[in-house]
Amino acid sequence: MVRRSVVHSSRRSGVVTRRSVVLGIAAVGGFLATDLGAVLYARGPLGSRSRLTPQAFVDAFHKVAGVHRGYRLNHAKGVVVSGFFESNGAGSEMTRAAVFQAGRTPLVGRFSVPGGNPMVADTVDAPRGLGLAIGYPGGAQWRTAMLNLPVFQDNSVQGFYDRLLASRPVPDTGKPDPTAMAGFLAAHPETVNAMTAIKRQPLTSGFADSTFRGLNTFYFVNANGDRTPVRWSLSPMREVRPPDETSSNPNRLFDSVVRDIRTEPLRWRLLVTIGEPEDDVRDATIAWPADRHTIDTGTVVLDSIETESAGNARDVNFDPMVLPDGIEPSEDPLLPARSAVYATSFRRRAGVAGEAPQVEVGEVAQ
């Protein structure tokens, strides 16, 4: 039976569940999202009312990482993958979304590392991202942008913006100003707690043996209209290994996953964790207790990898608010903010040739 939660969402204003118009294994078009919350209001650090717009985030990313035409504002360095989700049908009691009916659904995706600089060198402790767009051409699509972190660093739009600016490298050292970062952390204890949890997580060798999490909470809605708060994650099916601390290869993570997929498809279990009434659905900096009920809904398989280029997942906007019928956003304030900024980023890079891709799959030696 479906475990029904008494957590109910309040009436959402301006939140739109949007359908994708694109998905193909051979060719994938871009999704031009509507700005949700075109003006994002957040309380400033001194209690004054301040305005945060998508353009403010564009400017902040450019201050931190510079301007790189044709690239994403964040997670600029990446490589394209494709494959499928093999659902075992176990999630269909909780959601009427077609993707969770038993069967196979094609997908495209993108491995990435955070930051707006596409030339950044890979490091063993850098967060790793995986965006997926799951669905059939012309049909409803589910998009998710995941990280290999146990929690997110921020629980508010203002907090994310402030942390972004505090991380701006100082020219003399190439690292953030310690005074600015200390001031930010003093004002954001939730980020301090989140970073402590992140540092406790053991490092793994690369993308292939990383656990990826959606981090934000969503609702699964079944055929009867029952709404269940959930968080999802991908658990690797290959052996988890420690990182190679000796490598100086600036593309170590990407070169490794290219070789991995060339050798055999990579697989993850798609796990859905069910929230209880006491679990906070608005705060992604707080992990839900480990004893929460989790359902194994099937297997994500990645069996192809290629360089980013026009017509593949380079042009996909992995907006977490692109959801099929049967999945709805929670009240987490970061969700509409992410959607708005993702849309602005997509419009800025759409149709721009930009610089050459930083990860050339064909140049990776066997």
Automatic annotation (TrEMBL):
It is an enzyme of class 1 (oxidoreductase). It comes from the Bacteria. The keyword Heme applies. Its cofactor is heme. PROSITE patterns: CATALASE_3. GO terms for molecular function: catalase activity; heme binding; metal ion binding. This is Catalase-related peroxidase. It comes from Mycolicibacterium peregrinum (Mycobacterium peregrinum).
